[in-house]
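Entry 14. Ran structure prediction on the chain below.
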Amino acid sequence: LLFILHRYLTALFWFMNLLKNISAEEKNILEQTAWVSENMNIDSYAVGGYVRDKILQRPTKDIDIVCIGS
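Output, C-alpha cells:
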C-alpha cells in the first residue's frame, strides 16, 4: 500500500511541476482544444516533442495534438 501511495504522490508532484512550466498562451491553446474535444465528444492528447520538452523543462515551438474519435 505504501508503494502505491508513493507512486501516486510522485506522479502528482511531477504533474504539478509540469503545469508550472506552461505559458499563458499554451494554456489557452490547450483549454480551447479541450473545449472543442469535449463538445465533439472525442479524446485529444498533447503528444510528442511538446510533452518531452515540458518534462525536461526546455522551450517549445509547437504543440502536437492527436484526436481520437469518429
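The beta strands are 43-47, 64-68. Will compare against last week's run tomorrow.
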